[in-house]
Specification:
Number of strands: 10
Radius of gyration: 20 Å
Strand order of the largest sheet: 6-2-1-7-8-10-9
Bound molecules: S-adenosylmethionine
Order of helices and strands: HHHHHEHEHEHEEHEEHEEE
Distance between the termini: 48 Å
Helix content: 40-55%
Number of helices: 10
Shape: globular
CATH class of the largest domain: Alpha Beta
Strand content: 15-25%
Number of domains: 2
Structural class: alpha/beta
CATH superfamily of the largest domain: Vaccinia Virus protein VP39
Length: 274
């Protein structure tokens, strides 16, 4: 396993920053080297020099997305960082269910920005089903976006290893998942009544967003950690504009808006309200 030379890593870091806002610090050099070596062994490129030249001159969008997949991390899980779901139950669904708060057209829009392979948006849909009685009478939708082609594809297929459900409540699993059979033995599929609530799209968070909102809730978790401070500040300000009044933004529990000069009000660690 060879390590990328400093100049090569700098070229990679520059592409990653310009295209996707990713801040590849030197600490990532070994990880990126390992992933690239593995990729190059199976590719048509002789070596890293040839691959970098290809990326910098003739690569099309699909080539670039393959490269993005080599740099990014898709780790995710169902009901990850439970405290965000608890907050939504307490402060969003309960007042709606009680009728203390009303919404014009009974419209609810949630955005899972950087949804990875899908557990986050499907968890959001299951959670709404659990905590908003009569969800079918609401105009409820979860938009799930990510830049990674492979992640988006998995999110659309919505089939996961059974192992990913280990920490979930059995009753919830029985209601919202279907057991895979035959060649899908050992897998579970998201049940149709949850699947239909989620729309999966590919989106680079750095690009213009082809939707106007307003959103009620945005989950943008465990992605800003890869961006530098000015990129985070721009992203958070755009999300602020996309939320309706009282809209909720959750970021990863290892992330924070502090130092970004945002207009959000902090309501609990990593949860913010417009
Ligand atoms: C660690 S996963 C987080 C998944 C999920 N939000 C969670 O917390 O479990 C980070 C995701 O961010 C996505 N990502 C990174 N940079 C992005 C960008 N510029 N635009 C859109 N998605 C991006 C990656 O493809 C990856 O799926």
């Amino acid at each position: 396993m060879t390590t990328l030379a400093t100049g090569q890593f700098e070229r990679i870091a520059e592409i990653a920053m310009q295209r996707w806002g990713l801040n590849l610090t030197d600490r990532k050099r070994q990880l990126v080297s390992n992933r690239l070596s593995k990729f190059l062994r199976k590719s048509r490129f002789e070596n890293i020099t040839e691959y970098l030249e290809h990326l910098e001159s003739e690569a099309d969008d699909d080539d670039m997305l393959v490269f993005f997949d080599l740099l990014s991390t898709n780790v995710t899980s169902f009901f990850r960082e439970r405290q965000h779901f608890d907050y939504l139950e307490r402060e969003f669904y309960t007042p709606l269910a009680r009728g203390d708060v009303t919404k014009p057209g009974r419209r609810i829009r949630i955005w899972s920005a950087a949804c990875s392979t899908g557990p986050e948006p499907y968890s959001l849909a299951m959670h709404a089903k659990e905590h908003l009685p009569d969800l079918d009478s609401w105009d409820f939708k979860v938009l799930a976006t990510d830049l990674s082609n492979s992640a988006i594809e998995e999110a659309r297929i919505a089939m996961y290893p059974k192992k990913m459900l280990e920490n979930l409540d059995g009753a919830l699993v029985r209601k919202h998942f279907r057991r895979g059979t035959g060649s899908n033995e050992g897998m579970v599929k998201i049940a149709p009544h949850i699947f239909k609530l989620v729309t999966v799209r590919r989106l680079n968070l750095m690009d213009p967003w082809p939707f106007r909102g307003p959103f009620d809730v945005i989950f943008c978790r465990n992605v800003m950690i890869y961006f530098d401070q000015p990129t985070r500040a721009r992203l958070v300000s755009r999300m602020y504009d996309l939320l309706g009044p009282g809209g909720i933004l959750a970021v990863g529990s290892a992330e924070t808006l502090s130092g970004l000069n945002s207009k959000f009000r902090t309501v609990q660690p990593s949860v913010y309200v417009k």
